[in-house]
UniProtKB/TrEMBL annotation, chains A, B:
The keyword Hydrolase does not apply. InterPro entries: Cro/C1-type_HTH, HTH_LacI, LacI/GalR-like_sensor, Lambda_DNA-bd_dom_sf, Peripla_BP_I. Residues 19-56 form the HTH cro/C1-type domain. Signal peptide: none annotated. This is LacI family transcriptional regulator. It comes from Rhodovastum atsumiense.
Amino acid sequence: MSRGSPAEEYRIPVGRATTIVDVAERAGVSKATVSRYLSGKSEVLSEATWKQIEDAVAALNYRPSQIARSLKGGHTRLIGMVVADVTNPYSVAVLKGAEDECQRAGYMLALCNSGGSPEKEQLLLAGLRAYRIEGLILNLAGPGGEKVPEAMPADLPVVLLDRHLPAGRFDFVGLDNIAAMGEATRHLVGNGYRDLMLLAEPLRGVSVRIERGLGFREAVAAAGCSGEVCEVDLRQEGAMGAALARFMAGPDRGPRAVIAASGLVTLRTVQAMQALGLRMPGDLAVVGFDELEWSSLVGPGITTIAQPTYDIGIAVVRSLLARLATHNMTEPRSTIFTGRLVVRGSSAPAGAARHVRPAGEG
Amino acid sequence: MSRGSPAEEYRIPVGRATTIVDVAERAGVSKATVSRYLSGKSEVLSEATWKQIEDAVAALNYRPSQIARSLKGGHTRLIGMVVADVTNPYSVAVLKGAEDECQRAGYMLALCNSGGSPEKEQLLLAGLRAYRIEGLILNLAGPGGEKVPEAMPADLPVVLLDRHLPAGRFDFVGLDNIAAMGEATRHLVGNGYRDLMLLAEPLRGVSVRIERGLGFREAVAAAGCSGEVCEVDLRQEGAMGAALARFMAGPDRGPRAVIAASGLVTLRTVQAMQALGLRMPGDLAVVGFDELEWSSLVGPGITTIAQPTYDIGIAVVRSLLARLATHNMTEPRSTIFTGRLVVRGSSAPAGAARHVRPAGEG
DNA sequence: TTGTAAGCGTTATCAG
DNA sequence: CTGATAACGCTTACAA
C-alpha cells in the first residue's frame, strides 16, 4: 500500500462520517471484531488483527459514535448540570471541580442555566431527559423545586447542590450554613459589635438562605445581642441602600455590623455603603459569604466566609458516580463541607477601628 | 379506563424508560403514527388519533429519545463549547449569552474547560467529536491551536471566540482590540500621562494579546510618548510586583500609567500595587481590560475597557447557526465588536490626581 | 479467535 | 389517513 504524506493520510473524509464498517472493510475484518477492539478486549483478539484495526482506525481518524453506543447500551456517559446562576462565582468555581472530576471518569457535562426561573428549570430538565443523561447535578432555581421529581425518571440519580429540598430524597452536597453563620456572628460579637443585621435575598423556598437566617438568629440569641434578619429584593433599585439607611438610623445599641448572606449580596452591600458614604468598619462592619477574588482589594479588605468550592464540585460528581455504580440503590447521602472565616479589615475590632474612608471619596 | 390520581397517572415507570412503542400501544396506533405526532405533522393525522396519542404521551410522561433521533437523522442538536478558562468572568458572561441563544434555537450546549492546556483541548475535542456535535465554539487554549482541524471532521462548523488563528479558515467573533487599545492609550495620554506600560501575559500564540500589544505600540507611537510592553508570567509568584517595581524605578519621563491587558492581569496589578503601597492614580494610573463587577469598588474605581460579552455570546451562536443552515458552505465570517471605555478614578487627569491612599493602609 | 445476526428507539419510505 | 419495514452505528449473544 502506498502511503501518502501523514497530512493526507489523516484527512477526514468530507460528507458521511466514517463508521465502524469503514474501519472493518479497511482492516479486512467484521464489525464485531472492530467493536471488540474499540472496547479494548485485547485478550480475545490476535495480535495481527489488533494491529490491522489499529492502523485502519488511525488512517481513517475514526472515532466511534457515542450516540450509537448510547442507543445500544443505554449508557450515554452524559451528566446534566443545571445551575441557578452561571454568573455566580460560586457556581463557576464548583463547575470547575465538577468538570475536572467528570473528565477523569470519562463523563461529559451538559451545563444549563436556569437563571433562577423554576419554569425555565423545568424546560431544561425536560431537555436533559431527552438526552438520556445518566445523572443530574441540580442547583435549584428556587421555590417550586418540588416538581423536579415529576420532570425526571424516578430512577435518575440526582445530586442537589448547595440548595436542598425538604423531602430529603436526593443526595446533597453543600455547606454547614448554621455553623458558618455561627462562626461569623461570634467573630463580630467578639470584636465588640453589638447591633447585628443579616442581609439576605428573600428566604422563602431557598434552603441555604433559611439555614443562614436560622444560624444567625441562634448565634445572636446565644450572644445576647441585637440581631435582625433583613430580606432585600436585589432586583429592586435602591432597596439595599434603603435597608442600610434604615439600619443606621435605628436606636444606638452599640457598634453596628452586617453579614451579607451571599456573594451577590456582599457586592451590593459594599456598593450601597459607598453610595451612602458609610465607612467600613468605622460606621459599619461587614462580613460576607463566599470568598470573591476582590475581597482583599476593597477598602480595608472584606472579611468573608470562604467555601471550598472546587472540592464541592468534586464531591458532587463523586456522589453521583457512587450512586451510578450502585444503580441508584443507596440511601440519600449528604456531604457537608465546613466554611472558613477569612478575617480582614472590614470586621476589625470595634474600638480599634481606624476610620478609613472608602477610597475614592476624597 | 379507570383514571388514578394525577400523581399516580404521571408517575414515571422505574426501570426501562418508556419508548415510542409504549405510547403506540397505549394509544392503539402504530409507532409510525406516534412518530408523526411527535414531529408535529398535525395536517396528516385525524383529530381523534392526535388526541389519543396526546393523552398517551401525557399519561406516560413520555419524552422521545434524542439519542435515537440523532442516530437516525444525524442531527444531535448538540453544540460543543470549549473555553480556555471557565473561571474567567469574560468566558462566563459570553457563555450566558451563548446558552440563551442555544436554548432559543433548540440546541443544547456541552461545555468544556481546557484550562489553557492545548493537550487537554485536543482530548476534549476528541470527546466532543464522539458525541457528534453539530457545531463547535472554540476559545483556543493557546499556542498549538493549529492542530484543531486535525481533531475535527473537516466539515464541522467552527466559530472561534476571542482568539483566532492566522489561517482564517473559521468564523470568528471577538473584539476590535487595536481600536480598543488605541482608545485606552489616547485616554491616558489625554489625561497627561507620558510614561506608559502595557502589562500582558506572554503574547506568543495568543492573537488577542498580540493585537492588544500592537494597538498599544501604534497608539503610543502616534502620541509620541514612551510605551513599553511588559510580558508577565502570572504563574510566577511576585512577577507582577517585580515588573511594577522596575517600571516605577525607571527614569522619570512624566506621569506613569499602566494598561492591564486582561481581567486577570487587572486583578493582579491592583493586588501588586497594594502590596507595594502604590497609590492609584497618584503614583500610577491604571486602565484595565474587561469590566469586572468590582471595578467601581476598588480605590477610586478602575477605568476599564468593557466588552459587550452577552452580545458576543449571542453572536457566536448565531454565526454557528447561520453556518449550520447553509451546510457550512459560507465564506468564513468575522464579527467584530467594539469595546467601550468606562472612565473612573484610576485614570483621572495626572495633575488633578487626588493622592488617595488605597484604603486599609492606614 | 472471529463472524453472523439481532436489537437499541427513532424516522422515513413505501404501500394500503 | 395509517401501518409495515428498513435503516441509523454500534454492541453482544450465539455460532463457527
